[in-house]
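ugh ok so i messed up the first submission bc i forgot one of the chains. this is the corrected input, ALL of the components this time, i swear. 498 residues overall. if the numbers dont match what u have on ur side tell me asap before i send this to the collaborators (the ones from the other lab, u know who)
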Amino acid sequence: MSGLLEKDLRLTLSRKQTLLIFLVAAVVMSMSMDGSFIIGYVTMLASILSIGTLSYDELDNGMSYLMTLPFARRTYVREKYLFTLLMTACAWCIGTLLYGVGSAVRSGAPFTLSELPMLLSLLPVLYLAAALMIPLQLKYGPEKSRLVLFILFGAAAVLIAMGSGLSGGQAHFLARFATFLDSLPSLGILAVIVCVCAAISFVLYLWSVRIIENKEF
Amino acid sequence: MIKVDSLIKNYGDFHLNVSLEIPEGTVTGLVGKNGAGKSTVIKAILGLIRPDGGTVLVNGKEALSLDGKEKQMIGAALADAGFSSYLTVEDVIRILRKLYPAFDEDFFRKACAEQGLAFNKTIKDFSTGMRAKLRVLTALSHKAEILIMDEPTAGLDVQARIDVLDLLRRYLAEHERCSILLTSHISTDLESLCDDIYLIHNGKIILHEDTDVILGSCGILKVSEEEYEKLDRRYILSTKKEAFGYACFTREKQFYAENYPGIVIENGSIDELILMMTGGK
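and heres the new structure output, hopefully the right one now
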């Protein structure tokens, strides 16, 4: 596993120019923009970079060779989920630091501790998006997986649109659920988000293991 | 060390059905035309594909279920795949150090330097020969007991080929128990390295012979139609119609030399073996 982490770290660091551009853009945005958008932006970029290592692995039949190396196939998947978690967590820390520094420079004070649960909730949600990309990319490859992701988001948008058109009892139920969430303390909501995202990520991990164990190279 | 027993794999119209065995300390060559099934056999041994039937045992265990520790005993160099070309040799060293407890960094660094592989240059900037050398050196770097080499010399110039073969010879001299399965289109590479040769054609092994026998006892009889009619064809493995008459491949050239002193007999080679056994009637 440590060898795979080393590989992915080195592949990510090989994109020095991209990383530098991302970092400069993040610093500029943190100094010029209000709000916590910067945290989501940096975390999302990190998740894209970590998923990008899958594309590097698949380049030039690389997966055939990788699968001859001394680890089980499920270890490869486990490493991808761990690497993505480490990348997004580090990026969240950097983003939060930039947000704090930016806020301090603009308004004289960084964010308050009460904001932290809300800021922290970005991490599991963005990790979940990356966790979904792993099985899609393993199953469909880099190009097709993006298409599948667009279709999934499109389907989600349609469902939301349909949900907004609900009437009567169903709409009432959703409204009550939203009120229930509002009544929870922010730490409670964070705990719910973390648990839900962790559970879905685990299911996606199992799906990824199934895909790679049945895949031929 | 490796036992492939009735391995079956079907891809559309292509059907592979192969049995072969590579004992400890043996260098085995797998030859055949393009599309004969060589790479499929290699992939099955490396656990990259799921057989439709039969068994592939590596050190007595199913190739598909080898765990990380058991795979440390295998060194693989594939024809068209390796570490990402965005990595440098220095990166590869750091990765191998963590993947293989037996990684011999001193050997690897020394061999890379000897072969002129720059440590801080990305692999994508390497020539074809340099990439091939890196693939072979990587496979040799962790004291593997089984080496699987798929076309390690394909596309290389003469000097690069000699260098790669020398690397293998040196490794064999230092690791006598090591078994190697080697595929190559270049017969002289196999003739100089392999103890035995399997010839695969249309997904089937059509000949298995010691290299010494192929080079020493096999030959091609060049006979006219008249001579062909009189020929004792018991030891003829394959016959091909030529402009002058027939070319007949035999594994008993001494028998024909003694009994038919007038006919032309050419020495056998792996190239001839492939041509005659896969193209004759």
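quick check: The mean pLDDT of chain B is 90. that seems consistent at least. The interface with chain A takes residues 43, 46-50, 67-69, 71-72, 74, 76, 78, 80-87, 91, 94-100, 122, 148 of chain B (CB under 8 Å).
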